[in-house]
Each structure stands twice: as C-alpha cells, then as structure tokens.
Backbone:
C-alpha cells in the first residue's frame, strides 16, 4: 500500500509543480514582465520545485537524512541519468554557447561550498544563508546573460492563450495543494517503506525520492535535445543543480538545521562530486556524444551497484 501511496504522491508532487510553473508564467506575461525575466527565474526555480517541496517537508519532520539524500541523489541522477540519456540519444550536439567558459563555475562552485560547510556534520542556519547567497549570485549571472538564451525556455502556447484570472488562481491553488500534499505523503510513505524493508531513510531519499523528483529535468532535457537545443538540455541541468544545492538545501536547513553522517554517506558524496567533475570534463572537451554518455552511465552504474 505504501508503494501505491508513494507513486500517487510523487505524481501529485511533479504535476503540482508543473501547474505552478505554467501558471506563474501565465500571470507574469499578463503583467507584461519580460520574457527574459520569466525565463531566467524559471530556469533557476522551475524544475527544482519538487526537490524543494520534498526536502523542506523532510526537514520539517526532522528527517535530515532524507532531506540531504534527496539533493545528493537528484544531482547525481540529473548529471548521470538525464545527461547520459540525452547524450546517448542525440546524434549531433553542437552548442553555439561556450559552456565551459560561461557555465563551468556553476558546475563545481556549489559542490565545493557544500563540501566545506558539511565538514562539521551539520548544515545550520548560517550555512543556509550562505547557500541561499549562491542562488542570488546565480540569478545575477542569469540576468546578465543573453536574453535569447532564456526566451527559448518559455512555453509559447501560454502567451497566445487568453488570460483568465479565475482559471489561473484555481490552477495555481491546485498546484500548491498537489505539491505540498504530495510532498507530505511522499515523505510519510517513504519512511514506512524504509522501515518495512529495513533500509535507511538516506537510501530511500537517495533513490526513490530523488529519482522521482528528477523526472521534470529528464523530460525537459530530452524534449530540448530532440529539438536540437543542446544548450537548453545542459543548461537546465546546471541550473537545476545550482538550485538544488542553494535553494533546496538552503531553504530546508533554514527551516530546520540538518545533520549528516559523513562516514556513512561518503561514497554517495564522492559519486556526486565525481559526476560533477565528469560533467566539467565533458563540456571542456565537448564530448556531447555517446562517449560522454558512457562516462556518465558508468558512474550511474557504480552509484546504483554500491547502494544495492
């Protein structure tokens, strides 16, 4: 029964986040907010909303392992699974943007800061403010980038639709109810599953929750890759990972300080760091092909094999 509750709740969480993103874009367009501003903010917040809801709910219930593992697992899945699949599927990816010179800092900087602040085994409220400051820096970076990059992120069908306040408020409210309610049930059912099978909440957060909350990134990136937009596929993952470290962990630890056992989580943290360094290597050498995919999928296999 808990598995059914988990699957339904995860669906509600992901679809609720999608409602919020779309209706926020619709309202912003109604008030003539520029495409660039909407696109830039949606890049940073949009696909990480499920992770944020799940981790903040876990933090509120004093489940530190689940809150942190969700982020560690999501970043690992985003890079190894999502980009691994995208690179494997794509016949030809030739980004016009120089991803290494423009985006490489955002691949590695949040990870480095994360490793520094967890050395005492605790992510406190001061650490939370430091993490959230990364988000501010990233938003400033986004707002100084080329507007064309972000206009491509928008759903053009939304702009063509006639605006209706009643419909927007109803859908936005539905989105928040689904997201918050879904996150609550995801955490509860996950805890029950962990107890039933005698596994830790860290493992449940690392796999079940993080895989589920990575689905939006997977869908967005594959669709973008199929349209030949390599920058959007890779940029979506980089932006989502920045938001996971800064906004998700920062928000959760601001709500409730999070503890982490460095000894038991060391391998998973090492895999997350390895995935990030491998992504840096790939964009430096422009290995947006099956060779790059194999590097990432091997790391994913090691990640899964160790945990199983």
Residues:
């Amino acid at each position: 029964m808990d598995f059914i509750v988990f699957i339904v709740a995860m669906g509600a969480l992901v679809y609720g986040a999608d409602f919020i993103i779309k209706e926020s874009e619709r309202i912003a367009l109604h008030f003539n907010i520029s495409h660039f501003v909407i696109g830039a903010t949606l890049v940073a917040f949009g696909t990480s909303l499920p992770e944020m809801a799940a981790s903040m709910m876990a933090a509120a219930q004093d489940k530190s392992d689940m809150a942190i593992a969700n982020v560690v697992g999501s970043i690992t899945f985003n890079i190894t699974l999502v980009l691994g699949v995208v690179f494997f599927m794509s016949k030809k990816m030739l980004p016009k943007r120089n991803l290494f010179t423009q985006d490489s800092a955002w691949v590695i900087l949040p990870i480095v800061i994360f490793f520094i602040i967890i050395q005492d085994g605790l992510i406190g409220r001061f650490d939370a403010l430091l993490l959230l400051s990364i988000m501010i820096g990233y938003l400033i970076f986004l707002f100084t980038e080329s507007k064309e990059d972000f206009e491509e992120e928008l759903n053009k069908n939304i702009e063509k639709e006639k605006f209706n306040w009643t419909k927007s408020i109803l859908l936005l409210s539905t989105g928040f109810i689904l997201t918050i309610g879904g996150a609550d049930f995801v955490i509860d059912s996950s805890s029950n599953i962990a107890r039933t099978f005698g596994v830790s909440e860290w493992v449940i957060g690392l796999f079940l929750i993080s895989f589920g909350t990575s689905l939006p990134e997977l869908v967005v990136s594959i669709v973008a890759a199929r349209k030949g937009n390599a920058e959007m596929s890779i940029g979506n993952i980089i932006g989502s990972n920045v938001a996971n470290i800064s906004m998700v962990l920062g928000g959760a630890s601001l709500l409730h300080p999070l503890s982490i056992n460095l000894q038991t989580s060391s391998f998973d943290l090492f895999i997350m760091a390895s995935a990030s360094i491998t992504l840096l290597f790939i964009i430096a050498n422009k290995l947006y092909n099956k060779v790059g995919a194999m590097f990432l999928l091997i790391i994913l296999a090691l990640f899964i094999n160790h945990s199983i």
